[in-house]
Write a structure and sequence with these properties.
Blueprint (H helix, E strand, L loop, with lengths): L2 E4 L19 H11 L8 E4 L6 H4 L5 H9 L25 H21 L4 E4 L20 H11 L5 E5 L6 H6 L6 E8 L23 E6 L5 H19 L3 E5 L17 H14 L3 E4 L6 H16 L34 H21 L9
Parallel strand pairs: 1-2, 1-3, 3-8, 4-5, 4-7, 5-6, 7-8
Bound molecules: zinc ion.
Zinc ion binds next to loops.
């Protein structure tokens, strides 16, 4: 195994605003916690400091007009014409360095992609990447650049025949879905809180791709109050059979952690126990994995969860090297500092019943309309 954690403290220099939920500095916290738990202490693991991408890299997906607009906002000055590009909204504010920040996010993701392509790494994690809502000509959902689409295109252009994209963020990966809706070279799978109750309002089970891509877009919408048990069950019914049938050359995983019950923006009820079980399934699915952070707005919970994800990707156990020497409460919610895992959580039986019915229905739809395309269950 050869692993790369892509990280630079330069992320700390950017802020979308003090009240904005997206905190680039969470990368630094994950880096610190991984260090604390000895998760870089193996000869096959390295931490790589990325440089910003070039403007031309953005052009591999985004429109020239959008790139110009984003660039013009870099000084932090807003003018109303920018709203046409989704810039200057509450979700995507114009802030000082917004263009530089976008290039840095992309640079980190593309550095990881390059390691995979050259064979210098088979496992990569870039915590600030995974901006799955970014559109061709506009920003939305905290995403100014769609680093995922550009990374997948790079893989496809460099001899990768089949890329499996799995998105476990609480929001639907609409920007990525749109970019690969008509191709069978990317199998897109997103589990998310349903579009009836959460932005971006898409990702219904009947969105399954078109043309050659029919059956290569898979959406499993989940209702509010979905907890670990239901989530893991649903994931295991859909993901492993599809991954086995598709035989991807590489998995690109958006491992957003806004599914957690304390997340302030969503209504799912996961703990990091369910998340870790799913991460283990993803790890098993392919020797090559490019993992990108994505969402997650209860920052201490996200930091603990991504630390565990990095351990799982590397098949190692976190061991606290500074046990007792650092005060508790920094990354936890009143639990023991040495404990990275959440307390288990299960929703009430009454809630569970309606969640189960909803989810079973969606799984049945996927099995009926998507599985046959892949020869599963035939
Ligand atoms: Zn999200």
């Amino acid at each position: 195994m050869k692993s790369v954690f892509v990280y630079t403290s330069a992320f700390d220099t950017y802020s979308l605003g003090t009240d904005h939920p997206f905190k680039p500095y969470k990368a630094t916290m994950v880096h610190e916690l991984c260090y604390r738990y000895g998760l870089f202490d193996h000869p096959w693991i390295r931490v790589f400091e990325p440089n910003p991408a070039a403007g031309e890299d953005l052009a591999e997906f985004h429109s020239p007009e959008y790139i110009d607009a984003l660039k013009s906002c870099n000084g932090g000055h807003f003018d109303f014409t920018m709203l046409h590009y989704g810039l200057g909204t509450g979700d995507n504010p114009v802030f000082k360095g917004v263009y530089d920040f976008s290039l840095l996010v992309l640079g980190a993701t593309l550095a990881g992609t390059r390691f995979i392509i050259t064979g210098e790494a088979d496992t990569v994690f870039s915590p600030v990447g995974g901006l799955h809502h970014g559109g061709y000509g506009h920003a939305e959902g905290f995403c100014y650049v769609n680093d995922i689409v550009i990374a997948i295109r790079r893989l496809l252009a460099n001899g990768y025949k089949r890329v499996l994209y799995v998105d476990i963020d609480a929001h639907h990966g609409n920007g990525v879905q749109d970019a690969f809706y008509d191709t069978d070279r990317v199998l897109f799978l997103s589990l998310h809180q349903n579009g009836e109750t959460l932005y971006p309002g898409t990702g219904f089970e009947n969105e399954i791709g078109e043309g050659k891509g029919r059956g290569y877009t898979v959406n499993l919408p989940l209702p509010e109050y979905t907890d670990d048990e239901v989530y893991v069950r649903a994931f295991r019914e859909i993901f492993p059979p599809l991954a086995r049938a598709y035989r991807p050359d590489c998995v690109v995983a958006q491992i957003g952690l806004d599914t957690l019950k304390r997340d302030p923006l969503t209504n799912l009820r996961l703990t990091n126990n369910g998340y870790c079980t799913v991460m283990e399934e993803i790890r098993r699915s392919c020797p090559k994995i490019l993992a990108l952070g994505g969402g997650g707005y209860s920052v201490p919970d996200v930091v603990r969860g991504w630390t565990l994800a990095w351990a799982i990707l590397n098949g190692i156990k976190p061991v606290d090297r500074f046990l007792g020497s650092v005060g508790s409460g920094v990354y936890g919610h009143g639990q023991a500092m040495e404990d990275l895992y959440d307390q288990p959580h299960r929703v009430s039986d009454a809630l569970r019943k309606s969640v189960d019915i909803y989810v079973d229905n969606k799984i049945a739809y996927i099995k009926a309309h998507v599985f046959p395309v892949h020869g599963i269950g035939a």
